[in-house]
Every structure is written in structure tokens, then in C-alpha cells.
Amino acid sequence: MAEGFGINCIKYLVFIFNFLFAMTGLFTIIIGAIIQSSYHHYENFIGESFWTAPIVLMIVGSLIFFISFLGCCGAMRESSCLILTFSVFLMIVFITEIGIGVAGYIKHSELKEVLEKQFNRTMEDYTTSIEAQHAWSLVQGDSQCCGINGPNDWKRIYINTTVPSTCCHILPENVKQCTSYYASKEGCYPKLLNFLDTKSLLLGFVGIGIAIVQLIGVVFACALSRAFRENYETV
Predict the structure, then answer these.
(1) Is residue 79 helix, strand or coil?
(2) Which residues have CB under 8 Å from 3's CB, separation 6+?
(3) What is the DSSP letter of 2?
(4) Which residue did the predictor score with more confidence, 160 or 234?
(5) Is the torsion defined by CA of 201, 207, 213, 216 positive or negative?
(6) Three-state DSSP class for 3?
(7) Which residues is 179 bridged to in the sheet?
(8) Where are the domains of the chain?
(9) Burial class of residue 106 in the structure, from the number of CB atoms within 10 Å of its CB (0-12 exposed, 13-18 middle, 19+ buried)
(10) What is the mean pLDDT of residues 145-172?
(11) 3-state per-residue secondary structure call for 145-197
(12) Are 140 and 188 in contact (CB under 8 A)?
């Protein structure tokens, strides 16, 4: 068994790193699941391709959790083979994350255009599509907004000042119909765009942080694998 102080030090550093990394993977799975369950109904406005991100987060989180377990086993059993396998898998996940990050940046640059197009399309389909009606009810009710840029956008659909009931979040007791006068004056397009921009930046910073930690893990793992191999060769 490798008993050198340096080897033991690296071994326990790798073990601690992998335990924390496993928690990071679990956290990533939870974040992906929360985003997917809470905001997937907005896919009518931004397209299904933009909502693959939460699914990718859950997959990457699961891989991180599994790889971290592999690294812990390799460190405790002093197996250079397991540690080397761990470092290879970790590097593959790192490269995958870089690719996902580039693809996400490209998609993010298209978000404003796609969002505006989808808002206009669903409003045009409002009178004929139950799905469009449901989507607008959700976004206006959840975000407390009305129309694309404001309640006047509903003049395309309604002849008078009437707007969907989900535009009016507070109505006086004597008023029975929701009109543009009582409706929220904030449009749903800028509100949803701002929300998605904020979340995209947050996910981007989280991804960069995880990638940096992964590189550190690869360095530790390679050093530990080499130390194990050299130690056993000298025995």
C-alpha cells in the first residue's frame, strides 16, 4: 500500500474534492428539475429547442455524480486504473460542457428574435388554438403582465377595450369585465425576455465555475494516478 505522506495528502484531497463535486452534481440535477417543472410551459413562446437546457443540466449532473463516485472509489482503493478512468471521464464532461456553452451562447443570441416571433404567432392563433389560449393565460397570470408590449396589443383580437381576464390581477368589486383600463400595463415580452436573460447569465456563471473545478480535479487525479503507479513500480 502507498503510505507516503505526499500520496496520502493527494489521495484525501481527491476524495474531499470528489465528495464536494458529487454534491455539485446533485445540486445541478435539482436546479435542472426545478427549471423544467416550473417553466417548461413557456415553450410555446421560445420553442422546444431552448428548453433542452434543463434536461441537459440533469444529464450532466447525473454524470458528475457517477464520475465523482468513481473518483472516490479510485482514491480510497488506491487504484491508478480507476483514477485514470475518472480523469478521462471528467475531461470528456468538461469538453462536452464547453460545446454546450458555445451552443447555448449561439441560442441566446437568437432568443430576442425567436421570442418576439413566437409571441406574435401565438397571439394570431389565440382565437383558434386552445393551446395558444392556455399559454397566454399561464404567462399573463404567472408574470402579471398583459399582451406582448402592453394591453393595447389585444386590439388585434378584441374590437373594444376588452382583454383576457388573466390581464387583470386585481379588479374592483363592481367591475365584472377585464378591460385595458384595469389590466396590467407591463408587456409579457420584455418581462419574459429579462427573466430568461437573467437565468441564462446565472447558468453560464455556474457552468464556468463547475468547469474550473473539473480542471482542478483532472490535475489532482492525474497526479494521484501517477503517484500510485510509480509507488507500486518501486515496491
Answers:
(1) coil
(2) none
(3) -
(4) 160
(5) negative
(6) coil
(7) 162
(8) 5-128+189-234
(9) exposed
(10) 89
(11) CCCCCCHHHHHHCCCCCECCHHHCCCCCCCCCCCECCCCCCCCHHHHHHHHHH
(12) yes
Does residue 2 register a pLDDT over 50? Answer: no
**131 vs 122: CA distance, rounded Å:** 9
For residue 153, name the pLDDT band (cuts at 50, 70, 90): very high
User: pTM score > 0.90 for this model?
Assistant: no
Residue that wins the pLDDT comparison between 63 and 204 = 63
- What is d(CA 85, CA 192) in angstroms, rounded to the nearest whole number? 43
d(CA 218, CA 93): 11
Length reported for the chain: 235
Radius of gyration of the chain (CA): 26
Other residues' Cβ atoms within 10 Å of the Cβ of residue 165: 14
| CA distance readout (Å), 212 to 63, 80, 207 | 17, 23, 9
3-state helix, strand, coil in the chain (%, to 5): 80, 0, 20
Chain segment 120-139, per-residue pLDDT in tens = 999 999 988 898 899 899 89
223-234: b or e for each residue (b if 16 or more CB lie within 10 Å)? Answer: bbbebbeebeee
Give the Cα separation of 235 and 230 in Å (integer).
9
